[in-house]
Amino acid sequence: MKEVLTTGVKEEEVHLQVRSGSDENLDPGEIVKILCIFKVFDDIRQDNLSIQIIKVFQQIFERLGLDIKLFPYKTISNRTGLDKNIGGIIEVLKNT
User: Fold this and answer.
1) Which of 26, 45, 55, 89 has the CB geometry, 3.0–4.6 Å to 18, for a possible disulfide?
2) Residue 1 falls inside a structural domain
3) How does the average pLDDT of the chain come out, rounded?
4) CA 46 to CA 79: how far, in whole Å?
5) Into how many domains does the chain fold?
6) Which residues pair with 12 in a beta bridge?
7) Could you list the residue range(s) of the whole structural domain that residue 13 is in?
8) Is 51 inside a domain boundary?
C-alpha cells in the first residue's frame, strides 16, 4: 500500500521587525504585518526558482519600458520539526 502525504497549509499574519539593509522602502526597526502561508510536506524550492525567473523578467520589462505588472511574492524554503519535514513559508499578496 502506498503512503500518501497531504500538504499541510496554514495561513497566518506575521509581525516582523524590519532590519537595516532591507530591500523594502521601510525604516529599520519598523514593525510590519505580513500575511503568510506555512506549508509542510511540500517542497517549495521550485517556487523559489520560479520567483527568481519572474524577477529577472520583471527587470527586463522595466528596462524595455513595457507596462507589464509582475508581483513576485517572497518564499523561504525550510525543514521543520523533529523529522525535518520539508516545507516553507510563502508570502500572501492580497488583491493580486
Assistant:
1) 26
2) no
3) 75
4) 15
5) 1
6) 36
7) 8-91
8) yes
Contacts of 65-72 spanning 24+ positions with Cβ under 8 A: 71/96
- Please, which pLDDT band fits residue 19 given cuts at 50, 70 and 90? low
Place of cell 525543514: 79
User: pLDDT tens across 62-86, in order?
Assistant: 999 999 988 888 888 887 767 777 8
| 95: helix, strand or coil | coil
CATH number at residue 48: 3.30.1010.10
Q: In 10 A of CB 29, how many CB atoms? A: 9
Instruction: Return the higher-pLDDT residue of 53 and 37.
Output: 53
The answer to whether the CB of 40 falls within 8 A of the CB of 7 is yes
Assess if residue 70 is contained within a domain. yes
Is residue 31, in this structure, part of any structural domain at all? yes
Distance (Å, whole) CA 61 – CA 69: 9
The dihedrals phi and psi of 58, each to the nearest 5 degrees, come to -60, -45
Residue 2: the pLDDT is 38
